[in-house]
Each structure stands twice: as C-alpha cells, then as structure tokens.
Write a structure and sequence with these properties.
The structure is a homotrimer. By secondary structure, chain A is α/β, with parallel strands linked by helices. The first copy, chain A, has eleven helices and eleven strands. Chain A has helices at 5-15, 28-37, 51-57, 70-86, 101-114, 123-129, 147-158, 193-207, 211-232, 239-252, 255-261, and strands at residues 18-22, 41-44, 60-64, 90-93, 118-122, 134-137, 140-144, 161-165, 169-172, 176-180, 264-268. Chain A starts with a helix and ends with a strand. The A-B interface holds A 16, 18, 20, 25, 28-29, 32-33, 36-37, 41-47, 49-50, 53-54, 57-58, 232, 244-245, 247-252 and B 24-27, 29-30, 66-70, 96, 99-103, 137-140, 189, 191-192, 236-241, 244.
Chain lengths: 271, 271, 271
C-alpha cells in the first residue's frame, strides 16, 4: 500500500464533497469548521422529513449520538439507510456508548440497521461495542481492553473500519491495523476533538473508497495538524487558544508537509 | 439619500435593541456574539409556548431555517405573525432553500404567511426563491442567475428588501439596488458569516424603519469589519482566528472609520 | 470559615467530577469548555429516556432554561429529582425568568419540585424569583431590587444558596452573604459568562458539600480568571478574543495565585 494522506487531502480540496452531519449541539460548530477547513462542505440537517433528500446530495454521512433523542435516532436510521442505498460512506460516532442504555442500544441499533462503513470512538466506547471490558465516565474513556485488540474485534464483528482515538489513534479493518504515531497531548484537552475527527473521516471517505486507507489518512492529517498547532501555540496559551490553532491547521496544512511528517505503522492482525 | 452606516451603528449602540432569534444550532453562538458585539442584545427562544411573548419585547426578529423541523417552522410562523402585528422587522434567512423540498417549502410558507421585511440568502437561495435558475450544494451556493437581477426580482415578488451575500453583497428593494464593494475574501472561508449577517440586518432594521437603508448599512458594516479584520490577521492565521477578529471588529469599529471606508454603489433598477 | 478557592480548585483537578448539563444550545460549547478547563468532565444529555441514568454517574447537575421547551423541562424534572435522591448538588440557572411566563413558571416549577441546591441568575432574574421588583430585556438584567437583599430573600424562601452575577457577584444562603470583589468589566461583554458560571458552580459543589463555600469559591475563581485574562488581553482585542483568554485562564490558573488574589467580603445578614 502506498499511503499518502496528502494526496487524499488534495482530492478533498479539489472535489469539495458535501458532508451531511446528524450530530450533537455541543460540538457541531467545530464539526462544521473542521469540515470546511479541510476543504469539504458541511451541512447539518436532522428533520426526518428531509434527511433522505439531503443524503442524496451528499458525499458522506456522519451519525453522532452525543445528544441523542429517539426522534434523532429515527432520522439517523432514515439517513443511514439512504446513504447505504446510494453507496456513500456512513461514519458512526457512538458518543457515550456504555454510559447509558439509550446510548448503547442506539449505537447497536445503528450498527445493525445501517452497517456503518466507519465506526469511531474512544477506547471505552469501542471496547464496549466489541463486547469487551470498558469503563466510561459520561463521554470520557476511563480505560478498557487493549485498544488494538478491541478495534480489530469490533471491525471483525461489524465489517466496519474501526477507529479508536487516543494517545495513538488506531485504525482497524479486522485484518490490518494502522497505528498513528503523530499527535500532541494538547489535543486531549480540547472538548470535541473526537467529533471533529468524525467529520474528517467523512471528508476523506468521500474521496477514497478504500475506507481503511481513508481513515488512516484522516487521522494522520488531524494528528499532524495537532503537532503543527502545538509548535505555533504560545507558551502561555490554554486549550481554547490551541483549538483555534488546531482547526486552522487543517486549512493551512501543506500536502507535502503532511506526507513528510506522517508516522504510521501498519500491522497484519492475522499473521 | 444620505447614507451613513456609522450613524445607524451609533443608534444601535445607544438603543441596544433586543434581537429575537429562532435559528439553527450550528452558528447560533456566532449570531449571539455578533448581535452583542454590534451593540444590540440577543435572545434565542423557540418554544411555541413563549415566542409571541418574547417577540413583544423585541426590536427585531430573525427566522433562520438552517436546522429546521416542522415544530420549529410552526414557532417561526407564530413569532413572525406576532412581529408583523407589532410592527417590528422580520428577517428571513432561507438557509438551504433549493437543497431539499422541506427547506424550499418552509421558506415559501414563511414568505407567504409572514411577509418578512428582509430576506437574506446566498446567490443560489435568492435565485431559487425568485423562480430563477440556482444551484446549491447543501447550504453552499454553486451559482445561479445574475445576482442583482435575481435580488430585484425577489424583492418585487415579495415586497421585501432582498440581500444577496457574495463577493459583493447586494441589497435590493425592487426599485433600487445597492452594491457593497467592501469586504475581504477571508470572509467566505468562515462558516456562519451568512447567519451572522442576518443578526446584523436585524439590529440595524430595529433602529431604522427604512429597511433598504438599514440593510445596506448592516452589510457595509460587516464588510468593513471584514477588511479591518484582514488587516489585523497574522499572516499565518486561518479561518477560525480570522472569525474571532471579524466578530470582534463589530465591537471595535469606530463609526467615523466605517463611514470613511464605506464603498457602496446605488442603482436605480427601473430607469 | 477558612476560605480557600484554591484548595477546592485543587480538589476538582484531582477528582475530575462529572458535571451533567441540561442546558441551552447557544452557550453549551462554552459550558463544556469551562467545565473541562477547570478540571472536571462535562456531559450533556437531555433525552427523558436517559437523564436519570446519566445523573447516577454524575457529581453535579446543571439545569439551564436558556432555550427551554416543555419536553426539556420534563427532562429537567426527571434529572433533578434523581439528583436529589442521589444527593448530588443541583444548580438551577433560570435564564430569562421574568421575560416570558413560560420561563418564570418553569423556573418556579423546578424550584418547587426539585429544590435546587444553588440558584444562579442575574440581578433581575433573582429579584423576580424572590418576588421583588426586577426588569429584564430578553435575558439581560436592566435592574431590580438591591441585589444583596434579593439574594438573601430568595435564599430564605427556597433554602438554596443563591448567586447573583454582576459587577460584584453575590453569594447568599439567607444567613450569610459573600461579595466577590474580583472580576473585570470585559466579562460583561462576553455572551455566556452566566451559563459558564453555572458550570463552575457545579464543579465546585461536586467536591464541597458546603455549597455556600463552594459557590463563593467558584465565583471567585471565575472572577480572578477574568482579571488575569484582562492582563493578558491585547489592547486591540475584542470580546471574543477575551473570551478565549478567560476560559483558558480556568485551565492555567495556579491555586496559590487564586488564593492570593481573592478579595471576598463576608456579611452576616441577620445581625
């Protein structure tokens, strides 16, 4: 595999795919900004009456249960099925799966009914959905099973590409895993980096049908942006100042620099 | 017409009109900040049970269908009718009209039932509502009929002042048009500038009953703020850093500087 | 009373309590950032189907009626009762009480049914809930009864600790009052400082069962952060740039500096 996040970033910037989000009201502005900054077009639409029509114009669909309700889940089911029918990638962000039964059950229902192409969560969310041990406090992972093992397991169970965010992000399709060695500790201080990662996954999957590669490229792009933002950050800055730098790096990032900085290790899980 | 955006900005800062928003959950924080920074007071209230009462305390009403639902549209109808009864200006932002039939129909319904005083959209939204050719991708204009022609046509059709945002903003009342020559390309990189423009239109219309003049002043103010923000922006900054500068310029803007920088051309459409 | 905001801040940073918010969609991102920056973990969940389960994992609960609806109030009642049963502090932010009867009645209902441990509002909201004169424009206080008197009166009426925000913040439990002399005028220019104050109150109350002391410490922390942010702010900055500095100070704040700067006066109200 010749892995080049930069060439996919270039494709996003040229094709400007529409990324349809059904997401929470906490981090939605960051998702919109990240989508736009990476070169794609964000749209948010959640009314059951219009989601199918919006999906038909979209290049990818993000389903995020961060502030879910039963009617929102119904809209996600409608939109998700339409996306699969149309053949565009569906990215599921099961925020807080394991924290309440509504969240766990909604995530499982969406996996069963929609078969998302990419599932992205923190270590606890992914472990819990894989049927392994995981501990979650609200929407924050406290720990859980070995992340690479859990990601591979959930990928095998669901046929989705699974992305686990953490100090090192993991991308797994059940046969292979990619471990992204880029990133910066400041990213973990920012509320909403998980949600924005899902927007990036959608933008990359909209331009690259190999979703394993698309996902690895998206997470590498975000992690390299995190490094560059940290280099720019004033020593006296805090998490919000850093967030602005981080999201703006998605816009400023040069494709060659991204490829030069990328540090990704690939593993064959079934050797 | 002696056009002075600065004198209207001064009036907003003195009178601090209350701007009631029924708007989307993506850019709502920017709308609140822009309203406050320009000197007015924002309030967001969308429950059908309270919108009429809130309208009665307000100086202007913004209806934005960016993340609409049938119940939100019902609240908009209630609030809009009450605003017309009270005689305060109603600003309609038909976000994504043309992208789904729910959006197009909701925009048309609000125009028919409420008769908004100002309709603001991008080139595609305005062209589509005027019954002309327009192409929209999610909520992003891809192109459409000649913007000045489309704005004048929609103004004639609806008796509203029509504002079309773009490289040059256009304000039309069907007889006259104003073309705002100020602005900066960075504004188009920021998610939500359209929505915040509607907040400014509302603040200006709350203090000036000549809505054509109020609208031209609002758009000039925003465009001049965009220029000043670009002059302040670090060369290494991105869209989010620019957004902070842009919205803050609304607070920092001196009324004399605004008038000195304003470059607005007026046209008589029926000569 | 040996008052030390710094030692409580230290406790938050060590224990990382989960703060469950049922709040508005305007300032929710700021609430999340403030909660995280002060060292606690934010979670937002408002579906009636899950709020009780989320409360059971939480260390404090914030109820904010800024963009209320009847179903949201039902979720608040469910969550509030569960929080009282579990014994975790409930913080009520009656945004816009007095502006519409839905808001006034919802605030009164939540006070009656939930018995919040802390009620925080601006001078008008607190005066109105205390049964005194208060004038509100949207969600902005225009004035009202003497703030210290009104806070003490509402505290006596409700058995809650009452916090009134303003140039000087007031904390009252009916017998004692604390007047926080710290702060900076720029804080009043920022949309959402009231809502974020409620998040801080929740984080402090989660680690200190003496809610009067917890509330005084929370408001002192925010006010000192406001001073430090003003010292860092560029002379040419505006309210949004200041907001980033303000929220980031919650992360950067040193516990010793907080205690060194704190200027709080305590009064016995029944001497």
């Amino acid at each position: 595999m010749t892995f080049s996040a930069g060439s996919l970033l270039n494709k996003i910037r040229k094709e400007k795919p529409l990324v349809h989000h059904i997401t929470n009201y906490v981090t939605v502005a960051d998702c919109a900004a990240a989508t736009r900054n990476v070169g794609a077009l964000p749209v948010m639409a959640q009314a059951e009456e219009e989601v199918r029509e919006m999906v038909r114009a979209a290049g990818a669909l993000v389903l995020n249960i961060g502030t879910l309700s039963p009617s929102l889940v119904r809209a996600m089911l409608e939109a998700g099925r339409e996306a699969k029918k149309k053949g565009i990638p569906v990215i599921l962000d099961p925020v807080g799966a394991g924290a309440t039964s509504l969240r766990t059950e909604s995530a499982c229902l969406l996996i069963k009914e929609v078969s998302p192409d990419i599932i992205k969560g923190n270590a606890a969310e992914i472990a819990i959905l894989a049927g392994l041990e995981g501990e979650i406090k609200g929407v924050e992972s406290i720990g859980g099973a070995d992340p690479r093992f859990a990601a591979a397991k959930l990928a095998q169970k669901t046929n989705a590409v699974v992305v686990t965010t953490g100090v090192e992000d993991i991308v797994a399709d059940g046969r292979r895993s990619a471990v992204i060695k880029n990133g910066h500790p400041s990213m973990s201080l920012v509320v909403g980096t998980g949600c924005t990662a899902a927007s990036l996954l959608a933008a990359f999957a909209a331009v690259e049908k190999n979703y394993f590669e698309a996902a690895a490229a998206a997470m590498t792009t975000f992690a390299v942006a995190g490094e560059l933002a940290a280099e720019k950050a004033a020593s006296a800055g805090g998490p919000l100042a850093y967030k602005t730098l981080l999201l703006d790096q998605l816009y400023l990032l040069k494709e060659e620099e991204l490829d030069r900085r990328a540090r990704v290790e690939f593993f064959n899980e079934r050797e």
